[in-house]
Amino acid sequence: MKKKLILILFALILVSYFGINSYLKSTDPLIKWDWNKINTEEKHFPKDFVWGVATAAHQVEGANQSSNFGWWEKQTNSDGSSKIVNGDNSDIACDHWNRYPEDIQLMKQLGVKSYRFSIAWNKIYPKKDVIDSMALKHYVDVCDSLISNGIEPMVTLHHFTHPLWFEELGAFEKEENIGHFLDFSKVVYLSLKDKVTKWCTFNEPSVFMFSAYLSGAFPPGKNDPQLGGTVLKNMLLAHVKVYHLIKSLPGGSNTQIGLVKNMTQMDAMNTWNILDNFIVYFSDKNFNEVVLECFKSGHFSFYMPGMADIETEIKDAPKTLDFIGLNYYSHQAFDFNGNIEESLEPLPYPGERMTDMEYGLYPEGIYRAIKRIAKLNVPIYITENGVADSLDNRRAEFIDKYLYAVSKAIEDGYDIRGYYYWSLMDNFEWNLGYGQQFGLCHVNFNTQERNLKEGSKKYIEIISRFKEK
Description:
Strand content: 15-25%
Oligomer: single chain
Number of helices: 15
Largest sheet: 8 strands, parallel, barrel
Strand order of the largest sheet: 1-2-3-4-5-9-11-12
Structural class: alpha/beta
Number of strands: 14
């Protein structure tokens, strides 16, 4: 009898273990394709598919010292070292502010039909309640130049940066500050409404929050999960408010407004290790699912055991996406080794060809990301996808395989309207400086000379096969 009870107890423990483990890893299971059996030439894209490239104002324009990140570049760590790798700064960057006509010609060489870029809020509002009309005119001129060259502008309103005065007010830490973002959005929209139909409110709010309020890599460099969760909630609320604001303005009903979500899969190094899966579950929930669930149900829940607990409703959120922007690069692995702090550090997944970043090539991941984000039931634009490759010896493979995965998703019925490669050119990669080179165009930062890279030919070739004649 005693042996029987022990066996029953052991069986219950096993069932519980496997049941919990299966639940934890059921959200977005790892997939791997046998690329030796795949012909990547078998791609299919609609004739009206939008081919594009993307940049962000702070990374390419130059002269953004009046922003939160411009300030951050001048700060130092406790040991006196720069916050930015190699002490780099964005003072000149790619000088895109002045050289955009030349860069538009590079876009034409690539064959793209759309350009996603962001507006520097700090240039439009250099001081609180003060509008720089010449800065506004600059963006009008950029849009006019794009359109005259057959390239459609897609505008992002917040791509990680905002005015330093807004930062000093507490930025998105305080809900009452959202009004400043609404003022900026309204001014920009009214200036560009006759030229721009596709608008992205925020770029990667989860990345911004984690980098600024958990890892300390972005300004304000805090480590406060509860405050970070509040910032994320306020950014999503700001999106909802901007959506309704623009829709209420002249021509607003003709616009398409979305938010850009970075999807990074969190995968267990050992899928049968329940502790690996616990880390993966909570990491994914607070990075990916919190945003997806908010736009599916209007419920916002950010929970980190013992560190953060925020639960609220943003009831209108599910009705405020005309499309979703998907940014995708790769996935991360977690391996519990007994040390909590070390186990929370993401690792590259083994067996994959590495990029210059701390992750590998994983084209299957963009298919996974599309499948998951499609649950929002709105059209999808791939608003960023690219590879850090200073040697330019992986870019062609990256483009070929990732676009094969996108093509497969389209064939499987997912509503993907366009693809924007990140990035048009090498640029200032935030806290990593100029070392990480994502561009289709090489930039000599001493002379500002630009040249298309060899790896860009694969993108040109694919676009030429499928673009609308």
